[in-house]
Protein 1
Amino acid sequence: MSNAIELRQVRKTFGKNVAVNDVDLVVPEGAIYGFIGPNGSGKTTTLRMILRIFQPDSGEVVVLGQATGKTADDRLGYLPEERGLYKRMKVFELLTYYARLKGFYDCRGEIDSWLERLGASDWANKKIDALSKGMAQKVQFISAVVAKPELVILDEPFSGLDPVNMESLRDAILHLRQLGTTIIFSTHDMDMAEKLCDGVFMIFQGNKVLDGTMDEIQADYASNRIRVALSSADNTLPELHGVLETLPKGRYYDLVLADTSQAQSVLHQLTSQREIQHFEIVKPSLHDIFVSIARPEEVLAASKEEALA
Amino acid sequence: MKKILTIAFREYKAMVGTKTFLLSIIMMPVLMGGGLVALQLLNNVGEIKERDILIADATGQIYPVLEQAAEARNAMIDKQFGEDGKPRDGESDFGGGPSFNKAEKFYLTAFGGEMTEEKRLEFSDKIRSQELYGFLEIPREAIEQDSTSAASANIRARFFSQDSGLSPARGWLQSVISEAVKNQRLVEAEIDVQLVAKASQPVRITGVGLVERASDGSISEAEEKDELTAIFLPMGVMMLMFMVIFMASQPMLESVLEEKSQRIAEVLLGSANPFQLMCGKLLGSVAGSVTIFAIYAVGLYFVADQRGYLSSFPFEILPWFVLFQILGVLFYASIFLAVGASVTQLKEAQSLLLPVWMLLMSPLFVWIFIVQDPTGSVATWFSLFPPATPTTMMLRLATGQTIPIWQPILGALLTSLATLSIVVLAGRIFRVGILWQGKTPKLSEIIKWGLSG
């Protein structure tokens, strides 16, 4: 299988600000890839370079097999972060315009089927500024995918959506994958990224800090935390070596270990003294990993720096 | 190319398909010609004003003549205006005097006493309290003096009123008195008044255009030229050019601003490059301008046809109009695009737009000089200054005077060059500015974007 995107040592600076610092990235064809990272860390800049809106200062951006090219590629679809719609145009008219801009002229059927899929057929003749935020977001999504692109780039597609709309958009993304479309989306919703993505890419202060499948990432960030439940007869924990902290969580206890290698020894100690109902090495969630990388104080410092610059 | 056309089509629809467009199509000429129309309307509906004027006639001979003339005049006004003060059809011309004195009736009263400073003050106060409109003081010497002597210059009849400088009453009084005094003097000199009237019949000269050889070999009849063709036709042509350029290029500013603030620009740039985007927009703008021109041209054609002015319209300047219109629209639309791309809010655009407005409006400040001397050096140089060429060159061509053919050609070439440079410059600014978010760049920065390829 070939790759939809290959970034090699890509660097982009704005003035003194290094937005993207020598980043490598490979996204295989047909994958769903999540871009995460705090605000202002270089996500949108990276996406724009893939779209050829920006040219990198150095390095190589290969998209769908094409290494260079200043012109926009009709095989790409893009949903910018919020807005991106002409307020005074009607939904159908606007979607037709965006499809034609991608060189897709016979687009009526495709638009209709997408409007129907997202339950938006009734809005076809409404003006954009009459739509609610969720509706507008769906229209924007359709505008990104209507021209049957091979690669879809979605910048924060889930922001501002209620759970029902979020679900229908998720289904739409999965439908696209079935069609063989490669999808990249940026999001702040870690849960969604964890569930939906084949691969996750995190960029922080211009540097790549995470890249891989969820399993790979979780393996790298192995947890020092175990979760146990004891049989109800004796529900008190004995004295255990190698445990730094004990956190009661209902019928479970979360135990923070001094060292990940001590999990087996703790299990041994427990089985010799108590009857165990449940034992689990807690896998870190993407949310935990994200926060552990971009700790609030660092994000704050970074944004302060930005403000000064 | 197909992308450019797609963009152009949307831009065109966005410009032409709005209520604002329809409204401005109607409102522009109303605003432009508003002053003239309003004057005309006021003239027609204005009520008849009654003016009480006191005549201090020291000669004792003029007052009766004035009184008689005033009565005749008032009777004529009554006859021509109905009770409601509106003029009756077909009878609007009084002959003589400015047209706006139509509806003033004069009621004269004689003052027989000695005119003193005190009296003048008393009458002035009366005028101030609106009891009196004005008073005329005719010194005894006014008619006796030999008007050729130097001393007589100081002895004049004087008309006192709040608006004596503009007052139609003053003009009317002067003409009646002059006529009366002239006749009086003629009688005293035993000269036949009728004979003098006959002898002083003026010779009228009619202005006509030049004759041409028609296609069938005959020599055409010369056409009468009046104020319409000499001043209003060129002005109208210039105004039309101005409106077309303004209405077609100004929406570019808003269009780019919307694309910027709504982040549409990113979507567009993900589908087309900045060059295609700008070309599409300019093309849409030109198409819009042609539509505006067509609407006005058809409208004016019918109006002119009905009024019988059609024959005096110089149709040969039409191709020039279309050419200069396209150049002008491209020139100004590019500037508006660049400005729109450089700012983030309409408010911020104002300061950048001021010089653009000055350029676009500059011909409106000097057009009257150009019309009066369309082949003079001011007119020639002004019409070769590219930002003013479309309007002023058309103004000159519409006067019907012989403009050397190299001038419009040179003007078109210079404007094409200027337009080309502006389009390139604006394109560069557009490319950088369209994705620029955050603080508004300084003018120096914007210029730097434009100059660095």
Note: Residues 386 and 414 of chain B are 6 Å apart (CA to CA).
Protein 2
Amino acid sequence: MPEAEAIRLAQAGNAAAFERLYRLHNRRVYSLCLRMVGNTAEAEDLTQEAFLQLFRKIATFRGESAFSTWLHRLAVNVVLMRLRKKSATESSLDEMTEPDEESGGPRRDFGTPDLRLSGSIDRVNLQRAVDQLPPGYKAVFVLHDVQGYEHNEIAEIMDCSIGNSKSQLHKARMRLRELLHEELRDKAREDRRAAGNAGGED
Amino acid sequence: MATFTCRDFQDHFESSEDGPRSASPRSLRVQAHLRDCPSCRNFVEDLGTIRAAATQLAVSDPEPPERIWSSLRAQLQQEGIIHEAPAKQSWFHEFFGFGLPRPVLAGGYLAVLLAIAFGLSGPINSRINRQRWLDGTQSSLTPLSAQLTSAEQASLLSLPASESPVAASLHKNLEIVDNYISLCENSVREEPENELAREYLYEAYQEKADLLAQLNER
């Protein structure tokens, strides 16, 4: 059943059409939730909540935007709302970034030539760093770099400008780089300490 | 000409998103800076590494568990958002139910139940000794089948011509059960040790015996 037909039938309450729409999009929505919250139980809950909101409103869908964009917009909102509740603060997308104390922008770090990420990061430590990003950065990073959305689509999903999406993504990558460098430095320190201890025992 | 700093490089990088690629004069200065500045080269390389690792995250994403849909469907039904299609009927209903009006079926099923309840009097001893039969299926297969066939012929001969819908449905059901018995007998012949196949055949014989008893009752 093509998506357009499934939407039309779902608007009439057809159970099979709802299932078809769910099966078409569940993987990407679940993946988005999982990357945003880093916890499978919560990701399941959020996926269900996003689809529930979608299906409650499906009669109002008029096709002005792509169905998947509409769904992702709902999903991102559901996730951001949850994260806001967690941090118990009411904040906008911009406020959910991490401003630099001096300039109001993110900290600028051009890195040191002796510390490189190439060959040192894998999925696990990248996800660990992503988990530490502020929600706004995280959403744009997951949508663009993990899920492959374009900036114009992200702008629609996040209800922001294309420039804002680009800027958020850049800041997210910068913050990730910083976090990953910190992790590498910590690991190098631990290795040195372990080597020192081993030398002391000899 | 003002010095092109690392901050200028980063600003340019941010606005061009994928890094300095164009051939504009500004871009030439960007390229020159990149060539001469190890920090900015390291910066560009790191961002490339992060992007590559990010694509790997998507590849490793697990399948969403099926319980999400089950729970979602239940919630949608509860809220009256989806209208579930009628549940699929069992094989027994499919076998005995197609194409016949509900009152006729009800009459047929009631007749079967009554026949069983009254002990299946008449020439057919339809209550097969289940355990004895299951213990020796191979030796019992042919005699029992033959016994049922001869009982069927006797029942059909003794049955007055009737055009009633109930009689028609009983004949139809008898035909269906015969086909089912034939399939089950083949299974038992192919796999004589298969207890499940023997069990199905037993049930099929039982159904036929019940139907014949019902014919006799009429």
Note: The CA atoms of residues 87 and 93 of chain B lie 12 Å apart.
